[in-house]
Design brief:
Blueprint lengths: L1 H24 L2 E5 L6 E4 L9 E9 L8 E6 L7 E4 L5 E3 L2 E2 L13 E9 L4 E6 L2 E7 L11 E4 L20 E8 L5 H7 L15 E3 L1 H4 L4 E2 L2 E5 L4 H117 L3 H44 L29 H7 L16 H11 L8
Antiparallel strand pairs: 1-12, 1-15, 2-11, 2-14, 3-8, 3-12, 4-5, 4-11, 5-6, 6-7, 8-9, 9-10, 12-13
Length: about 475
């Protein structure tokens, strides 16, 4: 509300101090002819714009040939330091052009609000059409607006300050409320200026509005550049200001309500925060207790892990012992099976009939009787062997000699033959001599000697002897 009242007061002072004619003139627009000599050229201190600026104007496009240019700032170093056209084809900053023709969709004969802004903080050049940002472009770091140049409205200065105006860049349209500000205005500020051509919103920026429309309208013009009715007046300005003020008041009321609701929400939030704070303290205490419990649990867990490791080692040993026991069990089971089989065998034997036992007993009695007979025979044989032994000793000590090739006088002389004498009596040889040589089988394995032969001759034929 204060901003709207400031505009009304300012306009009242202008009307009172400057006179009605002066006030009415500032609401005039400029119409440019369609030749290269129709322009407004002037110089201004560009120091306030070195690190940032915003150029805005209401434009009515009429001339549609080539590249209509409504604002040009040229220095001796750069002819295209700043340049703005009403169709977007000429959008220069620091000599770099952007062709935005496709974005300028305003029909000829229609008023529209056009702005260009830039500053060193963002290092970006922004272009607005009817309060809407349509293009943004980065600019070289460290670059600032050149000084000592000239401003030309209605054409370009490709030849440098105040030179090079040509028929190719004739503006040929209408212009109103061109102002240059010493900083890069915000999106909302530009949007507010673009709402109403007659709102006088530009007046609210005070000292930041360096180049003013009420000064430009008084500048020297070249060619056919005439003042025309813009359709705006002090009354319309006041009405627009009132409308803007009412709109601002409505927005303030909405903002106040929002603030009230926000304050209420904030108070509720503060109450909740207090509750949360109390809960936090309780939770902090609980957390401390939980932490102590957790530490205790961790300690118990470590001890449990140690016990688990010990149990694991014991389990491994137990598994080894169990495996060994399994082997022993298998062996035991094998032995047990063997014992079962043996038991079954014995059981079968034990289950033999009484008759079989009796037969075994009778068989044993027979074998016992045979054994007694054999024993008697062996005892007799022993006696006879003892006799033979004595005779052999006598024969061995005898000095009688018998020639190997002497004439055979007894069948015992056969032992002197090559087949027997000097050899060993075998079962085969015994078979040959058995019929005539009783007891000879007892000498199986004895070497045949002269003494042994003479023994048998003496034993069987007592009157026979070896020939001399």
């Amino acid at each position: 509300m204060k901003r709207g009242l400031d505009v009304t007061l300012l306009l009242f002072l202008l009307h009172t101090l400057g006179g009605e004619a002066s006030t009415e003139r500032r609401f005039k627009a400029l119409k440019f002819g369609q030749t290269e000599n129709d322009y407004v050229l002037f110089q201004s201190d560009m120091g306030p714009f070195r690190t940032g600026f915003t150029v805005c104007s209401w434009i009515r496009k009429i001339y549609t040939t080539n590249n209509p240019t409504w604002f040009s700032y040229a220095t001796s170093e750069q002819a295209f330091e700043i340049q703005i056209g009403d169709d977007g084809s000429q959008t220069f900053i620091f000599g770099d052009n952007s062709n935005l023709r496709s974005l300028y969709t305003v029909s000829p004969g229609t008023w529209f609000h056009n702005c260009m802004s830039w500053d060193t903080d963002t290092q970006r050049r922004d272009v607005y059409l009817d309060g809407v940002l349509i293009d943004s472009k980065a600019t070289p770091a460290g670059r600032t607006v050149g000084q000592g140049g000239s401003i030309l409205l209605g054409n370009e200065q490709w030849g440098g300050p105040g030179a090079g105006m040509d028929s190719y860049d004739i503006f040929g349209g209408e212009m109103y409320q061109l102002n240059v500000f010493s900083r890069k205005l915000s999106d909302s500020e530009i949007k507010r200026m673009s709402r109403n051509k007659c709102s006088c919103e530009e007046e609210t920026f005070g000292e930041e509005r360096i180049i003013k429309w009420e000064d430009i309208i008084l500048k020297t013009r070249t060619g056919t550049v005439t003042e025309i009715d813009s359709g705006c007046s002090l009354l319309l300005c006041l009405q627009a200001s009132r409308q803007e003020t009412n709109k601002t008041l409505a927005e303030l009321n909405k903002t106040t309500e929002v603030l009230r609701q926000t304050e209420q929400s904030l108070n509720e939030t503060l109450t909740e925060l207090e509750e949360v704070k109390k809960q936090k303290e309780v939770l902090t205490t609980d957390l401390g207790n939980k932490e102590l419990q957790l530490n205790g649990t961790l300690l118990e867990l470590e001890q449990a892990e140690e016990e688990v490791e010990s149990l694991r080692a014991t389990l491994e040993n137990t598994e080894e012992e169990l495996n060994s026991t399994r082997v022993e069990i298998v062996k035991f089971e094998e032995k047990q099976q063997s014992c079962v089989e043996e038991t079954e065998r014995i059981s079968l034997q034990l289950n033999s009939t009484e008759e079989e036992k009796q037969e075994k007993i009778e068989e044993l009695e027979m074998k016992k009787e045979e054994l007694n007979n054999i024993t008697t025979t062996l005892n007799q044989t022993k006696v006879e062997l003892d006799q033979v032994k004595d005779l052999l000793e006598k024969a061995a000590n005898s000095t009688v000699e018998c020639a190997l090739n002497s004439t055979v006088t007894s069948y015992w002389d056969l032992l002197y033959s090559e087949d027997f004498f000097g050899g060993v009596i075998t079962a085969e040889k015994i078979g040959v001599l058995r019929k005539s040589m009783e007891k000879l089988e007892f000498f199986e394995g004895v070497r045949v000697t002269d003494g042994m032969i003479r023994f048998f001759k003496l034993f069987h034929d007592g009157d026979e002897h070896c020939p001399n």
